[in-house]
Write a structure and sequence with these properties.
single chain, about 100 residues, alpha+beta, GIY-YIG endonuclease, three-stranded antiparallel β-sheet, 3 strands, GIY-YIG nuclease family protein, UPF0213_domain
Length: about 100
């Protein structure tokens, strides 16, 4: 079964939160960490995975991403803190082999 993910990345000081969707979370987080693409996350050094939710359907993941993006920063912070109270990098210890 192929899963999809809605995720949030932050920078070291948690001043910026990026929300995205992907079908390959490991690869996408690696791309953020290595600044593989020039854009928002590379510009603001969003390289900490602070939240993710798994879905069995890409449409559901996209809908959840839209809901998060439409919400306030406070709502994003609450969602992150419910899953990850210390805002740790949830990808710590992941092995990136590409």
């Amino acid at each position: 079964m192929l899963f999809s993910y809605t995720y949030m990345m932050s920078n070291v000081h948690h001043t910026v939160i990026y929300t995205g969707v992907t079908s390959n979370l490991l690869k996408r987080v690696y791309q953020h960490k290595t600044k593989a693409y020039k854009g928002f996350t590379s510009r603001y050094s969003c390289d900490k995975l602070v939240f993710f939710q798994e879905f069995t359907n890409i449409s559901e993941a996209i809908e959840f991403e839209k809901k998060i993006k439409a919400g306030s920063r406070a709502k994003k912070e609450k969602l992150i803190s419910q899953q990850n109270p210390d805002w740790n990098d949830l990808s710590d210890g992941w092995v990136f082999t590409f």
